[in-house]
Amino acid sequence: MSNFANKDVIELGAPQLGRREEEAVLAVLRSRWLAQGSRVAEFEQQFAQMHHKDDALAVCSCTAGLHLALVALGIGPGDEVLVPSLTFVATANAVLYTGAKPVFVDIESVISPHISMEDAATKCSPKTRAVIVMHYGGFPVDMAQWSDFANDRGLRLVEDAAHAPGVDSVGVLGDATVFSFFSNKNMTTAEGGMIITRESALLDEIRLLRSHGMTTGTLDRHRGHAYSYDVIKLGWNYRMDELRAAIGLAQLENLLPWNETRRQHRQHYSDLLAKKVPAVQVPFADGGETAAHLMPVVLPTDVGRLKVMEALRSNGIQSSIHYPPVHKFSFYEDQFGRQKLPATEEYAARELTLPLHPGLTGDDVDRVVASLALSLKSRE
Ligand SMILES: *Cc1c(COP(=O)(O)O)cnc(C)c1O
Which atom from ligand 1 is nearest to the alpha carbon of 87? Predict the structure, then answer.
């Protein structure tokens, strides 16, 4: 599938790039219109359609998209926003960009590493204005329940869907939902993101903020549709460009089949692990709807994770950790002090992410599990 894949190592994740992407980028260069234009508009339309929406907004990253969504929802200084700590740091950083305070919420358990509603309820204060849920590994949180949670308390609900493009239940109940097209995600534009919203008025507000708070776009002015413009808000330059949109359009053609291949590899992993390494737990083992972005496993408590990772690496197998908890980072401890999130900390200490991407073969999965089994056997 991928023309440029590294065959010597089993990569953790690998962008699927080929002739289609090459030709798409060349066509943009030859067109000589590089900044946000018709390809971005087409990419937005096609992405929106996949998520059963009328419109979507492409941005330069998911981080930028989260920032814009929060600003457009009126989040700012003095407000508190509930966030998981078990996420990429961008989720919490986006809250800080607005001047609001991220309040860290624990996960449900080590086999269900989603943000815990029970803990979220105890962390609500009169200042709480919003909650950001994150669809960890491509498994959607229970949006019906989170929607009730938010409605009961008058909170805005934002979905960090960096792991979950193409999942049907994602982007339906959240006020705003933001996807990432960073290079290691299920589809990529190198850097990039996309926003969908429940109400079109919010998307219009975000459109304004994406480009300096200006009332007309560069392309309109170039085409002579607009002779001047006004600035009516403080905005940013968080636009996407045509090169990235062209790559995105090529990727979008394959996203759903890629997600299906990921699910098949995940199932293969789960079956093999249960048989060959039953001491290792698989989160979200019940399955259900997923974009299968990650293959996380939870190692037994008496296992040295670093040794396992080194053993895998010596067999040419990449692995990683998702995630070092945000509340434990130096910057966050300096800002907000030491906090205890027991389930998050246990999960982060025991979690190991195995390779998962559409370029894997069944043999690769066999090799990873065999190597993991061996490294666990030799642990004494
Ligand atoms: C990758 C990621 C982001 C940030 O995405 P960018 O497009 O790199 O800004 C945010 N949240 C989560 C959960 C991610 O995995």
Answer: 13
- Tokens 């200084």 -> residue: 77
What global pTM score does this model have?
A: 0.96
pLDDT band, very low/low/confident/very high, at 2 (cuts 50, 70, 90): very low
- By CB atoms closer than 10 A (0-12, 13-18, 19+), residue 370 is middle
Check residues 227 and 65 and name the one with the higher pLDDT. Answer: 65
Give distance in angstroms: CA of 54 to centre of ligand 1. Answer: 24
Those residues with Cβ within 8 angstroms of residue 337's Cβ, 6 or more apart along the chain or in another chain: none
Q: How far is the CA of 98 from the centre of ligand 1 (A)?
A: 17
Q: Is the pLDDT of residue 245 over 70?
A: yes
**Which residue has the least CA distance to atom 2 on ligand 1?**
162
State the pLDDT at residue 217: 66
Q: Above 90 in pLDDT, residue 231?
A: yes
Is pLDDT at 380 greater than 90 in this prediction? Answer: no
Condensed to tens digits (0 to 9), the pLDDT of residues 142-171 reads: 999 999 999 999 999 999 999 999 999 999
The predicted model gives 291-295 an average pLDDT of 98
Whole-angstrom distance, CA of residue 248 vs CA of residue 46: 10
Report CA(134)–ligand 1 centroid distance (Å): 10
Q: Is 173 in the pocket of ligand 1 (CB under 6 A)?
A: no
Cβ–ligand 1 distance for 88 under 6 Å, the answer yes
Give burial (CB, 10 Å; 0-12/13-18/19+) of 3.
exposed
Which amino acid residue places its CA nearest to atom 8 of ligand 1? 182
Rounded CA-CA distance 380/360 in Å is 31
